[in-house]
Amino acid sequence: MSDSSGSETTLQVRRLIGAPPERLFSYWTDPEHLVRWWGPAGVVCDSAAIELRVGGGYRIANRFPDGAILWISGEFEVIAPPHRLVYTWQLLNHDASARAGIERVTVTFTARGSATEVLVVHERIADQATRAGHEHGWIECLDGLARVVTR
């Protein structure tokens, strides 16, 4: 599902995962867990650093099959364990130069019986092509999260 306003695009991706919100929040915010599931198929999360506090930063390294590394970084705006995270999102090249503008991601974890609905809302996306890439990435990230937490 997407919404467009002006020149920016918003993306929403939902997934029901068989684990409680507390566990999913932990897997999203603890670098040791995050590196185990982050990234679309074929992409390896080489490292993750997370300073989990409002104003704290994060930095995630995505290594592609050709060896190229794309960094994702940002700053936490809202941290409400175990139900909500809001953070900025910026893609950086291997030399840490910005590739795109600053976007925003909101992740909510809502209990649904013995499972949790994870909703990712990715805002301020510059164009439809970037949105399509993000959609593919988020769907496969949530697939990876589900595989790791339900083992």
Question: How would you portray this structure in words?
Answer:
The protein is α+β, with helices and mostly antiparallel strands. The protein has a single domain (2-149), classed as START domain (Alpha-D-Glucose-1,6-Bisphosphate, Chain A, domain 4), CATH 3.30.530.20. The protein has 3 helices and 8 strands; from the N terminus they run ββααββββββα. The protein has helices at residues 21-29, 31-37, 128-149, and strands at 2-5, 8-17, 44-50, 57-63, 69-80, 84-92, 103-112, 115-125. It has an 8-stranded antiparallel sheet with strand order 1-2-8-7-6-5-4-3.
Can you give keywords for this protein?
151 residues, alpha+beta, Alpha-D-Glucose-1,6-Bisphosphate, Chain A, domain 4, 3 helices, 25% helix, globular
Q: How many structural domains are formed by the residues?
A: 1
Helix content: 25-40%
CATH architectural designation: 2-Layer Sandwich
Order of helices and strands: EEHHEEEEEEH
Cα-based radius of gyration, to the nearest Å: 15 Å
- What structural category characterises the helix and strand content? alpha+beta
Q: Helix tally?
A: 3
Judging from the principal axes of the Cα atoms, what is the shape? globular
The biggest beta sheet, please? 8 strands, antiparallel
- How much of the sequence lies in strands comes to over 45%
CATH homologous superfamily, by name? Answer: START domain
